Amino acid sequence: MNQTRFSLSLRYLRNSLLAVLTVAVTTLPLVLIGRDTLGEAVIALIYLVPVTWSANRWGQLPGISAALTAAMAFDFLFIPPFYTFAVARLEGWLVLAIFLGVAIVVVERIQTSLTRAREAVFMYEMSSALCGQRTPEGVAYAVAKQIQQLFQAMLVNVVFHPDMDSAGLVASEPNNGTGKGSPDRVLAIVNSWGLVGEIQIWSGLYSELPPEDGRLFQNFALQTARAFERTYQAKNENHFNDTLSKATANK
Known about the structure:
Layout: H1 2-33, H2 35-38, H3 40-58, H4 60-78, H5 90-131, H6 136-151, E1 155-160, E2 169-173, E3 185-191, E4 194-202, H7 215-250
Antiparallel strand pairs: 1-2, 1-4, 3-4
Protein backbone atom coordinates (compact mmCIF):
# COMPACT_ATOMS: atom_id res chain seq x y z
CA MET A 1 0.00 0.00 0.00
CA ASN A 2 2.80 2.39 0.92
CA GLN A 3 4.64 1.51 -2.30
CA THR A 4 1.48 2.21 -4.29
CA ARG A 5 1.04 5.63 -2.70
CA PHE A 6 4.73 6.43 -3.26
CA SER A 7 4.47 5.48 -6.96
CA LEU A 8 1.33 7.58 -7.39
CA SER A 9 3.01 10.53 -5.64
CA LEU A 10 5.98 10.27 -7.99
CA ARG A 11 3.66 10.21 -10.99
CA TYR A 12 1.76 13.29 -9.76
CA LEU A 13 5.04 15.09 -9.09
CA ARG A 14 6.38 14.25 -12.55
CA ASN A 15 3.20 15.38 -14.28
CA SER A 16 3.07 18.58 -12.24
CA LEU A 17 6.66 19.37 -13.19
CA LEU A 18 5.80 18.76 -16.84
CA ALA A 19 2.86 21.15 -16.47
CA VAL A 20 5.16 23.82 -14.99
CA LEU A 21 7.60 23.26 -17.87
CA THR A 22 4.75 23.73 -20.34
CA VAL A 23 4.00 27.14 -18.82
CA ALA A 24 7.70 28.04 -18.94
CA VAL A 25 7.89 27.16 -22.64
CA THR A 26 4.82 29.32 -23.28
CA THR A 27 6.34 32.22 -21.35
CA LEU A 28 9.48 32.45 -23.48
CA PRO A 29 7.84 33.75 -26.71
CA LEU A 30 5.60 36.05 -24.66
CA VAL A 31 8.68 37.69 -23.15
CA LEU A 32 10.34 37.99 -26.55
CA ILE A 33 7.28 39.60 -28.14
CA GLY A 34 6.71 41.90 -25.18
CA ARG A 35 3.83 43.14 -23.05
CA ASP A 36 3.43 46.37 -25.00
CA THR A 37 2.81 44.47 -28.23
CA LEU A 38 0.42 41.85 -26.89
CA GLY A 39 -1.30 43.53 -23.97
CA GLU A 40 -2.32 41.98 -20.66
CA ALA A 41 -5.62 40.52 -21.93
CA VAL A 42 -3.98 38.61 -24.79
CA ILE A 43 -1.22 37.34 -22.52
CA ALA A 44 -3.79 36.08 -20.02
CA LEU A 45 -5.67 34.25 -22.80
CA ILE A 46 -2.46 32.69 -24.13
CA TYR A 47 -1.57 31.47 -20.64
CA LEU A 48 -4.86 29.56 -20.54
CA VAL A 49 -3.54 27.34 -23.34
CA PRO A 50 -0.87 25.49 -21.28
CA VAL A 51 -3.27 25.36 -18.32
CA THR A 52 -5.96 23.73 -20.45
CA TRP A 53 -3.46 21.39 -22.09
CA SER A 54 -2.01 20.28 -18.75
CA ALA A 55 -5.42 19.62 -17.21
CA ASN A 56 -6.56 17.67 -20.26
CA ARG A 57 -3.31 15.72 -20.61
CA TRP A 58 -2.29 15.02 -17.02
CA GLY A 59 -5.26 15.70 -14.76
CA GLN A 60 -6.45 18.10 -12.10
CA LEU A 61 -3.35 18.48 -9.92
CA PRO A 62 -0.98 19.25 -12.83
CA GLY A 63 -3.64 21.59 -14.23
CA ILE A 64 -3.78 23.53 -10.97
CA SER A 65 0.02 23.55 -10.84
CA ALA A 66 0.05 25.05 -14.33
CA ALA A 67 -2.56 27.64 -13.33
CA LEU A 68 -0.60 28.77 -10.27
CA THR A 69 2.67 28.88 -12.24
CA ALA A 70 1.05 30.88 -15.02
CA ALA A 71 -0.42 33.33 -12.50
CA MET A 72 2.98 33.83 -10.88
CA ALA A 73 4.73 34.29 -14.23
CA PHE A 74 2.00 36.68 -15.37
CA ASP A 75 2.42 38.75 -12.22
CA PHE A 76 6.22 38.66 -12.22
CA LEU A 77 6.80 39.50 -15.88
CA PHE A 78 3.77 41.35 -17.22
CA ILE A 79 2.01 43.21 -14.38
CA PRO A 80 3.71 46.41 -13.09
CA PRO A 81 5.97 46.74 -11.20
CA PHE A 82 7.88 44.19 -13.30
CA TYR A 83 10.19 41.47 -11.94
CA THR A 84 8.50 41.44 -8.58
CA PHE A 85 5.43 39.71 -7.20
CA ALA A 86 4.10 43.00 -5.84
CA VAL A 87 1.12 44.57 -7.62
CA ALA A 88 1.01 48.36 -7.65
CA ARG A 89 -2.47 49.02 -9.04
CA LEU A 90 -5.95 47.73 -8.31
CA GLU A 91 -6.31 46.99 -12.01
CA GLY A 92 -3.40 44.59 -11.79
CA TRP A 93 -4.97 42.74 -8.85
CA LEU A 94 -8.24 42.44 -10.74
CA VAL A 95 -6.57 41.06 -13.88
CA LEU A 96 -4.56 38.57 -11.85
CA ALA A 97 -7.55 37.46 -9.77
CA ILE A 98 -9.79 37.04 -12.82
CA PHE A 99 -7.11 35.06 -14.65
CA LEU A 100 -6.51 32.73 -11.73
CA GLY A 101 -10.23 32.24 -11.13
CA VAL A 102 -10.92 31.46 -14.78
CA ALA A 103 -7.94 29.10 -14.96
CA ILE A 104 -9.08 27.09 -11.92
CA VAL A 105 -12.66 26.89 -13.23
CA VAL A 106 -11.37 25.66 -16.59
CA VAL A 107 -9.28 22.98 -14.87
CA GLU A 108 -12.21 21.80 -12.76
CA ARG A 109 -14.58 21.69 -15.75
CA ILE A 110 -12.10 19.72 -17.83
CA GLN A 111 -11.48 17.26 -15.00
CA THR A 112 -15.22 16.79 -14.44
CA SER A 113 -15.86 16.22 -18.14
CA LEU A 114 -12.99 13.74 -18.45
CA THR A 115 -14.10 11.87 -15.34
CA ARG A 116 -17.68 11.54 -16.56
CA ALA A 117 -16.57 10.43 -20.02
CA ARG A 118 -14.19 7.86 -18.56
CA GLU A 119 -16.86 6.55 -16.19
CA ALA A 120 -19.35 6.24 -19.05
CA VAL A 121 -16.83 4.20 -21.05
CA PHE A 122 -16.06 1.98 -18.04
CA MET A 123 -19.76 1.39 -17.35
CA TYR A 124 -20.39 0.48 -20.99
CA GLU A 125 -17.45 -1.94 -21.01
CA MET A 126 -18.69 -3.60 -17.82
CA SER A 127 -22.23 -3.94 -19.22
CA SER A 128 -20.86 -5.44 -22.42
CA ALA A 129 -18.75 -7.92 -20.47
CA LEU A 130 -21.73 -9.06 -18.36
CA CYS A 131 -24.46 -9.21 -20.97
CA GLY A 132 -23.09 -12.37 -22.57
CA GLN A 133 -22.60 -14.33 -19.36
CA ARG A 134 -24.97 -17.22 -18.66
CA THR A 135 -23.65 -18.56 -15.34
CA PRO A 136 -22.72 -17.05 -11.96
CA GLU A 137 -19.18 -18.32 -12.49
CA GLY A 138 -18.97 -16.48 -15.80
CA VAL A 139 -20.25 -13.28 -14.17
CA ALA A 140 -17.72 -13.51 -11.33
CA TYR A 141 -14.75 -14.03 -13.63
CA ALA A 142 -15.93 -11.36 -16.08
CA VAL A 143 -16.24 -8.78 -13.29
CA ALA A 144 -12.85 -9.67 -11.80
CA LYS A 145 -11.14 -9.50 -15.20
CA GLN A 146 -12.83 -6.25 -16.22
CA ILE A 147 -11.99 -4.38 -13.00
CA GLN A 148 -8.42 -5.69 -12.96
CA GLN A 149 -7.84 -4.50 -16.53
CA LEU A 150 -9.56 -1.14 -16.11
CA PHE A 151 -7.56 -0.13 -13.04
CA GLN A 152 -4.45 -2.32 -13.45
CA ALA A 153 -5.22 -3.71 -10.01
CA MET A 154 -2.79 -6.04 -8.28
CA LEU A 155 -5.62 -8.45 -7.43
CA VAL A 156 -9.41 -8.55 -7.72
CA ASN A 157 -11.54 -11.14 -5.91
CA VAL A 158 -15.25 -11.52 -6.62
CA VAL A 159 -17.04 -13.52 -3.93
CA PHE A 160 -20.59 -14.81 -4.51
CA HIS A 161 -22.66 -16.75 -1.95
CA PRO A 162 -26.36 -16.69 -2.89
CA ASP A 163 -27.60 -18.51 0.23
CA MET A 164 -26.48 -20.58 3.20
CA ASP A 165 -27.37 -23.87 1.50
CA SER A 166 -25.30 -23.31 -1.65
CA ALA A 167 -21.55 -23.39 -1.95
CA GLY A 168 -20.13 -19.98 -2.69
CA LEU A 169 -17.65 -19.20 -5.41
CA VAL A 170 -14.58 -16.98 -5.59
CA ALA A 171 -13.14 -15.65 -8.84
CA SER A 172 -9.69 -14.04 -8.84
CA GLU A 173 -7.89 -12.02 -11.48
CA PRO A 174 -5.08 -12.60 -12.12
CA ASN A 175 -5.35 -16.27 -11.15
CA ASN A 176 -1.92 -16.31 -9.55
CA GLY A 177 -2.15 -12.79 -8.11
CA THR A 178 -1.61 -12.01 -4.45
CA GLY A 179 -2.85 -9.06 -2.44
CA LYS A 180 -0.83 -7.65 0.43
CA GLY A 181 -2.79 -6.91 3.58
CA SER A 182 -6.44 -5.92 3.49
CA PRO A 183 -8.13 -4.94 0.20
CA ASP A 184 -7.95 -1.26 -0.71
CA ARG A 185 -11.61 -1.31 -1.81
CA VAL A 186 -14.43 -3.65 -0.78
CA LEU A 187 -17.72 -3.33 -2.69
CA ALA A 188 -20.79 -5.04 -1.27
CA ILE A 189 -22.92 -6.95 -3.79
CA VAL A 190 -26.54 -6.49 -2.76
CA ASN A 191 -29.58 -7.55 -4.76
CA SER A 192 -33.21 -8.34 -3.94
CA TRP A 193 -32.08 -11.31 -1.82
CA GLY A 194 -29.83 -9.18 0.35
CA LEU A 195 -26.05 -9.29 0.67
CA VAL A 196 -24.83 -11.99 -1.71
CA GLY A 197 -21.13 -11.25 -1.99
CA GLU A 198 -18.44 -8.63 -2.36
CA ILE A 199 -15.76 -7.37 -4.70
CA GLN A 200 -12.30 -7.06 -3.15
CA ILE A 201 -9.74 -4.89 -4.93
CA TRP A 202 -6.03 -4.42 -4.23
CA SER A 203 -4.68 -1.39 -6.06
CA GLY A 204 -1.73 -1.66 -8.45
CA LEU A 205 1.35 0.51 -8.66
CA TYR A 206 0.30 2.81 -11.48
CA SER A 207 -3.40 3.50 -11.03
CA GLU A 208 -5.48 5.19 -8.36
CA LEU A 209 -8.78 3.58 -7.42
CA PRO A 210 -12.02 5.59 -7.21
CA PRO A 211 -13.72 5.85 -3.79
CA GLU A 212 -15.92 2.96 -2.68
CA ASP A 213 -19.01 5.16 -2.41
CA GLY A 214 -18.37 6.83 -5.77
CA ARG A 215 -20.80 6.48 -8.63
CA LEU A 216 -18.53 4.26 -10.72
CA PHE A 217 -17.90 1.52 -8.16
CA GLN A 218 -21.49 1.61 -6.93
CA ASN A 219 -22.65 1.11 -10.51
CA PHE A 220 -20.22 -1.81 -10.92
CA ALA A 221 -21.57 -3.44 -7.76
CA LEU A 222 -25.18 -2.92 -8.89
CA GLN A 223 -24.53 -4.37 -12.34
CA THR A 224 -22.77 -7.35 -10.78
CA ALA A 225 -25.65 -7.96 -8.35
CA ARG A 226 -28.22 -7.91 -11.14
CA ALA A 227 -26.13 -10.20 -13.33
CA PHE A 228 -25.71 -12.69 -10.48
CA GLU A 229 -29.44 -12.66 -9.80
CA ARG A 230 -30.29 -13.15 -13.46
CA THR A 231 -27.85 -16.01 -14.09
CA TYR A 232 -28.52 -17.76 -10.78
CA GLN A 233 -32.26 -17.77 -11.37
CA ALA A 234 -31.73 -19.00 -14.92
CA LYS A 235 -29.44 -21.76 -13.65
CA ASN A 236 -32.04 -22.89 -11.11
CA GLU A 237 -34.80 -22.79 -13.71
CA ASN A 238 -32.75 -24.90 -16.11
CA HIS A 239 -32.00 -27.39 -13.34
CA PHE A 240 -35.71 -27.57 -12.44
CA ASN A 241 -36.70 -28.05 -16.07
CA ASP A 242 -34.14 -30.81 -16.53
CA THR A 243 -35.34 -32.56 -13.39
CA LEU A 244 -38.96 -32.23 -14.49
CA SER A 245 -38.14 -33.60 -17.95
CA LYS A 246 -36.35 -36.59 -16.51
CA ALA A 247 -39.21 -37.30 -14.11
CA THR A 248 -41.72 -37.07 -16.95
CA ALA A 249 -39.65 -39.36 -19.14
CA ASN A 250 -39.42 -42.01 -16.39
CA LYS A 251 -43.21 -42.28 -16.03
